[in-house]
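lol forgot to send this yesterday, sorry. struct tokens for the thing we talked abt
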């Protein structure tokens, strides 16, 4: 469980007491220690957040309570089931952590793709078998051998009830159907996923009388990530909301009607080099590439929606809507290939010098849109519209190649991906000189 990571080892306790004894221990303010940047491994990407892991843990806590009641009634003895550790691991790590020989079930989960794994330690399987055979006293030791066919048949009496409970636990997310696709005793023979495939591992600590063992479930992230939104804790509260009643949508629209939105009229965005921007002075003229007879853009809350022509009503500016912005047309903030030109005006020297100082101070305070580009390639539109949940898109960039930092759409630097606590970072390396794109 998450709290287990907070328990100090004996050596750490001794070191802490020793430091207190000699007066070397100092109080460190909370937040003063900065998390260390750790290189990000693209072969084992972190695809599940803490919030999602906590939601998965909550779901399986309900499963553990149901399993405890079922096993206690079926085996006629007290059984305690608790969720242990929930974490993201690679398929290889999960397999290497299983005992051999063991009790391993490969589960299909319609309609999801990618099998689930359900594993039981022999230290738990053999006591269950003995209780099913009406043994009054369970042996303290168990044989270190694979299950026989008769023993597998006895385990098969319990497994359907376990899978029914799993189905009920996931019912609030989606109607899944769990079925046993294969059985295995040697973990090394299981090849249902690639070694680096991301899995969510859920371990259950089971106590059966004097015996303790572990049940483990491995969920392929690729199979469940389409349902992650429903797993997040705050979405559980909204899952029980009623369907909207007839007329409720119209009533909501009437209530929103008085709300105000910002309407902006502007020319399509164009580029300007930062050097040219820094040389602007009062009296200069900016020359755009937009013909004065062409319609301008009308944006609603920053999103271009209409085309319009400028005019006036009495002594006020006005516009007449002439069309609707088509899909794929440039939006405000997009940078086309056209570039503004500057015609330098005339002005007094001291005034231009003061304007230059003021402009430099303003430029230094600007917030520039930056992005870290992980990978990119050109894709046909017909391929994009066919994308679906679970789709795998391959890029030409290799795993070890550096990432790119861009300001707007221009490259600024390269660097290596790092992870700082749970946040993604970029360790800057070589700086790149931006290459301007040619005008059409």
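and heres what i got for the seq, position by position
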């Amino acid at each position: 469980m998450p709290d287990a990571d907070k328990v100090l080892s004996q050596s750490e306790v001794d070191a802490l007491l020793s430091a207190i004894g000699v007066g070397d221990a100092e109080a460190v303010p909370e937040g003063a220690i900065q998390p260390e940047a750790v290189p990000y491994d693209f072969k084992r990407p972190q695809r599940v957040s803490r919030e999602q892991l906590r939601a998965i843990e909550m779901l399986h806590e309900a499963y553990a309570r149901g399993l405890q009641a079922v096993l206690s009634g079926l085996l006629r003895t007290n059984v305690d089931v608790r969720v242990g550790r929930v974490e993201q691991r690679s398929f290889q790590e999960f397999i290497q952590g299983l005992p051999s020989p063991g009790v391993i079930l490969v589960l299909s989960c319609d309609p999801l793709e990618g099998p689930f794994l359900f594993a039981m330690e022999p230290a738990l399987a053999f006591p269950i078998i003995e209780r099913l055979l009406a043994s009054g006293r369970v042996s303290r030791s168990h044989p270190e051998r694979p299950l026989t066919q008769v023993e597998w048949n006895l385990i098969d009496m319990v497994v359907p009830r376990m899978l029914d409970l799993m189905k009920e636990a996931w019912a609030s997310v989606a109607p899944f159907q769990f079925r046993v696709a294969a059985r295995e005793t040697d973990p090394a023979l299981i090849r249902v996923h690639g070694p680096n495939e991301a899995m969510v591992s859920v371990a259950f600590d089971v106590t059966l009388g004097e015996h303790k063992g572990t049940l483990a479930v491995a969920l392929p992230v690729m199979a469940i990530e389409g349902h992650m939104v429903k797993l997040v804790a705050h979405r559980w509260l909204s899952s029980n909301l009623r369907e909207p009643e007839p007329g409720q949508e119209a009533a909501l629209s009437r209530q929103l009607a008085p709300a105000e939105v910002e309407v902006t009229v502007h020319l399509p965005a164009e580029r300007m080099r930062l050097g040219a921007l820094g040389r602007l002075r009062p009296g200069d003229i900016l020359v755009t590439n937009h013909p004065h007879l062409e319609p301008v853009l009308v944006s609603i809350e920053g999103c271009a929606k209409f085309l319009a022509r400028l005019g006036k009503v009495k002594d006020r500016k006005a516009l007449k809507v002439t069309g609707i912005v088509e899909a794929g047309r440039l939006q405000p903030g997009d940078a086309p290939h056209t570039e503004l030109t500057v015609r330098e005006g005339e002005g007094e020297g001291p005034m231009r010098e003061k304007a230059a100082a003021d402009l430099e101070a303003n430029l230094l305070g600007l917030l520039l849109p930056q992005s870290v580009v992980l990978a990119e390639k050109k894709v046909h539109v017909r391929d994009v519209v066919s994308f679906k949940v679970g789709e795998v898109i391959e890029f030409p960039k290799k795993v070890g190649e550096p990432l790119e930092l861009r300001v707007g759409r221009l490259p600024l630097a390269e660097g290596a991906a790092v992870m700082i606590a749970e946040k993604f970072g970029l360790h800057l390396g070589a700086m790149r000189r931006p290459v301007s794109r040619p005008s059409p």
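The first strand starts at residue 37 and ends at 39. anyway ping me if u want another try
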